[in-house]
Amino acid sequence: MKAPLLYLCLTLIVTNLYAQNQELVYDWETDRKYTKNINDESSALILLKNHFQYDHRYENENLVVYETIHKIYRANNDEALQSVNRIYIPLNNTIDITKVRARTITKSGKVIELDENNIKQVKDENNGAGYKIFAIEGGEIGSEIEFFYTKRSYVSYFGRGYYQFKFPVISSSFRLTSPENLKFDFKSYNGLAEVQEIDSEGYNVYELKEENIEPLQEESFSNYDANRKRLEYKLAYNTASGNQRLFTWSDAGKRVFEIIYPFKDTEVKAVKSFLQELKVKNIDNLLERFLFVEHHIKTNFYIDEQADDNSTQLDVSIKNRFTNKKGFARLMIGVLNELDITNEIIMTTSRSEIPFDGDFDTWNYLGEYLIYLPQSKQYVAPSNFETRVGYWPPEFSSVEGLFIKKMEFEGSTVPIAQVKKIPALPYERNFDNLSIQVSFSEELDKNIIKAERSFLGYNSNFVKLNYLYSDDEEKEEYIKNLIEFLGPGAEITKAEIREPKTEFNEWSLPITINGEFTSSEYIEQAGDILLFNVGGLIGLQSELYQENERKTNVENVYNRGYLRRIEIDLPKGYTIQNADDLNMNVKADEGGEEIFLFKSTYNVEGSKLNITIDEYYNRISFPVERFEEFRKVINAAADWNKITLVLEPNN
After folding, report:
1. Cα–Cα distance measured from residue 278 to residue 296, given in angstroms and rounded to the nearest whole number
2. Burial class (CB in 10 A: 0-12, 13-18, 19+), 605
3. End-to-end CA distance of the chain, in Å?
4. 45-238, what's its fold?
5. Has residue 607 got a pLDDT over 70?
6. Shortest CA distance to 109 belongs to which of 194, 196, 33?
7. What is the average per-residue pLDDT within 39-55?
8. How far apart are CA 645 and CA 628, in angstroms?
9. By percentage, how much of the chain surpasses pLDDT 70?
10. Half-sphere CA count of 206, side-chain side, radius 13 A
11. What keywords sit in the KW lines (predicted)?
12. pLDDT tens-digit profile of 512-526?
C-alpha cells in the first residue's frame, strides 16, 4: 500500500556540502557456478540471494538514488519455475534504468544470459509509469534464475522492505549509502537482524545481513504481511542544516493540516449551498444532521482514486459528485466545520497489512483517513461507503493512528499531532444472531422451520449496502442465500427482510431477515429411532486445523457475537436419549474476563426442547502461546454442528 500524497509534493532542501561523487559500480559474480550444498533442497522454490541496495548521490545539486535489486532463485518444480521466469521492473518514480543483467544456470552448469533486445516496456494505463518486462530463457527444473537491475530514481525519504516469504531465503542483505550530511534511521520488525552503520569516509553506509530465513506460511486468523520480517527506514537528519530530526509526527501533523483543513471562500460557499439544498436545518440534533449528510454523500457520490487534485476542491467535488480519498476527507471535514461539530483528522494504516508503529516516525504509515468526533467519541470513515458514523473499517481499529486537532494559539489556528490508539468495537456491536423454531411433519420425514436472522454492525452494513444497490430480482436471490445458509437444498417458502432500515437514522440499527422452509436434510430414520441433526440448524461452521506449529499471534478481523435460540417441538411419543450432548462450555479468559466463549445449554419443557448458544470473540489480538485455547473455542462451534440427537419412541 502506498502512503498518501503527504510527501510526494514535499521538497527537502538539502545543502550540497559534499558534491563529490563516489563511483557507483554494482555487478554480479562473473564466473559464478551452480550453487552446491544449500540447506533446504526439498523446497519447491528457494531464494538463494535477496539483496536491496540504495545509493543516494548528488547530481547537478539534486539528490537522486540508485536502486539495485539482485535476486537468485532455485526453482525445483514447474510451478516454481513459472513463478520466477518472468521479471518485472516497476518504473514509478524512475528517471532511467542504468543496468539490467539476467541469466539462467542449469544443474549441468550451462549458462544462458539475457538478450537485452528482449526487454519490453509496458505502459500502465492507470498511473502512466508502467514497467519493463522480460522472460528468462533456458530455465528448467532445478535451474537457478538470477537477475539484477539498477535504476536511477527520484528520492523517497521513507522506505520499506520485506525479507521473509513463503519459501526459504538463504542469504538476505540490505545496503544504503548517503552523503555524509544525510543520516537515516532504521527499525527491524519480527526478528529481522538490525541495521549496522559501517565506517566510511565521505559517505554514510548502512548494512543489514541475515542468513537462512525460514519461510512463513499464511495462517488462519493472522495477518500475513504484518508478521513477515521487514525493515522500515527514513531520512532522519540533515546535519548541514542542524541537528533537528526530520519528518517527525509533528511535521506530519502540519503537513496533513495544510492538505485538509484550509478552505477557500468558494469551497465554504459550496458547502453552505449544499447543506441548504439538503435542508439539514429541519433536523434538530447536530450529529443527526451530519449523519443525514454523510448518508446522502455515501449513497449519491462515488470514489475515483485516479481523480486529480482539483477534484478534492469542495466546490468541484460537490458539483461532480466524485473525488478521491483525500477529497472525501476534505468534504466530510468541510461539512463538520459548517455544522460546528468539533473534529480531528486521523492518519493511519491497515492493521491487516502493516500495523502503525508510533515509536518510529515513518510517514509510510500515513495511508488512510479517519475522522474523530471528540464530543460524541465517534469515528467516521470518510470514503468507506459501507459504514456510517460510529462504525469504521475494522482493519483501522485496534491500531495506532496520528490524531491531528486544531488549536487556537495567539490568534492563529495551529495543528497538534498525537499518536493514540484507535479502539475496536466490542462484540455486542457486531452480531449475527439466530432465532429458530422447528417442528416435524406428521410423517416424521421432514422439518418445518421458521428462522429469524438478525445482523448488526459490520455484517449489517454489508447486507444493507448490497440491498441498497440491488434490483428486486437480486434482492430476492440475496435474501434467499442468507436463509439457505441454514438449510442447503431446502424448499424455501418465505424469505424477506422485515425492514431494510437503510435510511440515515437507521443504518446503525439491526437488520432482520425472516425465512420459512422445509427440509428433509436433518432427519434420518434407523428403524424406530429418529436421528435428528440438530447441529445443522446453525449452518456449516469453519474448523480451525493446525497441522504445523503455530507461528503467529491470533488476529481477529473484528470482535463479534453469535446468539442462537432454537425451539424444537419434539414429535409426540419420542424421548431424547442424549440431550446432555447439547451442553458445551469452552472459553478463554484474560484478567478474569471471558474474552472468547462458546456456551450451549438446553432445557426441556413438556414436548419443547429449548436450546441457547452464546458464542463471542471480544479480543482482536491473542498471543501465539495461548493459540490452543482460541482454537478450541472456534472448533466448539464446528463440533456442535456435528451433534445428532437420538430420539427413541416411548415403549
Report:
1. 9
2. exposed
3. 69
4. Immunoglobulin-like (2.60.40)
5. yes
6. 33
7. 90
8. 28
9. 95
10. 22
11. Signal
12. 999 999 999 999 999
From residue 168, alpha-carbon distances to 34, 74, 231 in Å are: 18, 10, 18
Q: For residue 70, how many C-alpha atoms fall within 13 Å in the half-sphere facing its CB?
A: 18
Q: In the chain, what are the domain boundaries?
A: 45-238, 249-422, 429-649
- Per DSSP, which regions of 26-181 are E strands? 45-59, 62-75, 86-90, 94-105, 111-113, 120-122, 131-135, 144-154, 158-162, 169-179
**Cβ contact 373:342 at 8 Å:** yes
Which pLDDT does position 5 carry in this prediction? 42
Q: What confidence tens digit (pLDDT) does each residue in 3-33 have? A: 554 444 444 444 444 445 556 789 999 999 9
Q: Please list the residues that pair with 198 across neighbouring strands.
A: 205
Q: What DSSP line would sit under 152-163, residue for residue? A: EEE--SEEEEE-
User: Which DSSP string corresponds to 365-425?
Assistant: G--EEEEEETTTTEEE-TT-SS--TT---GGGSSEEEEEEEEEEETTEEEEEEEEEEEPPP
CATH of domain 429-649: 2.60.120.1130
The grid coordinates of residue 36 equal 552446491
In the chain, pLDDT over 90 holds for what percent of residues? 82
Confidence class for position 297, pLDDT limits 50, 70, 90: very high
CA 215 to CA 43: how far, in whole Å? 10
Q: Which fold has domain 249-422?
A: C8orf32 fold (3.10.620)
- Specify the amino acid at residue 141: I
Per-position DSSP letters for 562-577, written without gaps between them:
EEEEEEEEPPTTEEES
* 114 secondary structure, DSSP code: -
Contacts of 71 (CB under 8 A, 6+ apart): 47, 49, 50, 51, 146, 147, 148
Residue tagged 495551529 (cell numbers): 414
Cell digits for 326? 483525500
Neighbour-count burial of 122, counting CB atoms closer than 10 A to its CB (0-12 exposed, 13-18 middle, 19+ buried): exposed
The predicted-structure confidence for 622-645, as pLDDT tens digits, reads as follows 999 999 999 999 999 999 999 999
Q: Give the C-alpha distances (Å, rounded to integers) separating 454 from 431, 461, 497, 556, 601.
A: 8, 12, 10, 21, 21
Average pLDDT in the chain: 92
